[in-house]
Please model this.
Amino acid sequence: MSGALRIRVLHGPNLNLLGGREPERYGRVTLSEIDGALVARGQELQVEVVSSQHNGEGALVDAVQEAATLGFDGVLINPAAYTHTSVALRDALLAVGLPTVEVHLTNTHAREEFRHVSLIADVAVARVMGFGDQGYLYGLDGLVRHLRGS
Ligand code: DQA
Model:
């Protein structure tokens, strides 16, 4: 299939609060600033980037399924707390089979032990963590290169 690549960006619970949420940990950049930077980087890479945030696990699962139905080529996701708990999200990613990159603002391995587990790590093409908001851009770059086979 020809045409520009289309990337679905999904943000999990509480990431709508970025900017004011534990700023010493997560920084002061807001989610809409992150989404704006992703769209701008997408334009440079000539890919379409569509983002959304979901606090509910089911809504996140629906968004993964919809990404496939709508013909997106890949998923860039920060599942936030559902990273560590959600079999449903893992199953959704497996079901749709879209190449997925997992992003975290923080290095979850340097935090509480329950954050050391990711139920989607082995389903993802790659993981980016610990680079704050910049990590989303690294993740987008990597996902696009992966999809282009370069
Ligand atoms: C997070 C890490 C998760 O453990 C946490 O629940 C989040 C944010 C991160 O981006 O560092 O909400 O995904």
